[in-house]
TrEMBL record:
Source organism of this protein record: Aedoeadaptatus nemausensis
A Pfam family matched in the record: CCG
An MF annotation (GO) of this entry: 4 iron, 4 sulfur cluster binding
Transmembrane segments annotated in the record for this chain: none
Gene3D superfamilies found in the cross-reference section: 3.30.70.20
UniProt KW keywords: 4Fe-4S, Iron, Iron-sulfur, Metal-binding, Oxidoreductase
PROSITE patterns on file: 4FE4S_FER_1 (PS00198), 4FE4S_FER_2 (PS51379)
Domain 4Fe-4S ferredoxin-type as annotated: residue spans: 1-30
Any one cellular-component term (Gene Ontology): plasma membrane
Name under which the protein is recorded: 4Fe-4S ferredoxin-type domain-containing protein
Keyword Ligase included in the entry's annotation: no
Amino acid sequence: MISYALDSCIHCGKCKRICPFLAHYDMDLSEFATRPELKGECYLCDNCKRTCPKNISGREIAMEHRKNDPLPSFKVRLQKTPYLLRNVQKKNTKSLLYLGCNYPGQFPETCKKLIEICREDGIDFSVDCCKKPVAQTGYSLSEDSIFDHVKDRGIERLICCCPNCYNMLKGRSEIEVISIFEYLDEQGLLEELPEENIPLYIPCGDREHLEYFKYIEPYLKSYHKEYNKIHCCGLGGGGKHTPEVAEEVKEKFKSLHETYGGIWTYCASCSIAFQNYGMDHIVNILSVFLGVNEEPSTSYMKNILAFRRLPHDI
């Protein structure tokens, strides 16, 4: 992508106008391709690609820089490879409910409801990390390390709660990967929500292909996308050395939150960011569909430890 950016950029400036990181350094994507020292400042949201007439991806530029010279990853690798608090399936099942690591910590009752639904369908569950936080540093991961607990188990399909897990795992093996909303739609468990003018935030990882949202949208009466003018929730890792950019993202969310009095999303990682910004009335669409109506928990570690001991009794 670096070579393509240098050869193809027409310097129209559209990427700078949509990305606070690029705007802060007054550079377009072709210049970013020559600035490897800024590899850790990109939020990896790829909003730039969606506006670029040449389809240049800032995310791919950042990742190419990071693979050439990875960001520090010892701490995250220690935590995530393997995930120290994992609770993986005990039996061989053709389908597996892949809860990830953030959903059980943020929305424990919602996850328990999903486990109950899947148990009736003969599907076991797994609490684990998809390794995306490690991959985003540029550190090289083998496919065996990513799928270490599902290989040789006869698993043919992973049902992912988290859009980040979905994007990380889909297409990496012969195992089919679907979203939890696709599964619930198959089971006839999604019904139209009565709320109107929902203040919706589509996670940046789902904006290009809408693999999750295409199963959600038919059941929404109406919604608006003012929040989606913001490129990323901020949890993508950018802005570590440019706190003014991170603060700009935070203030945009807080300003809209003051206007709308809440925010709806379906990404547990985004919910963590919104909590960190001091926002309340954070509505998880998955939890609403299931009738749990759970707000993000403030006891993340306590919840994860509880799931670490949760029995598998399908």
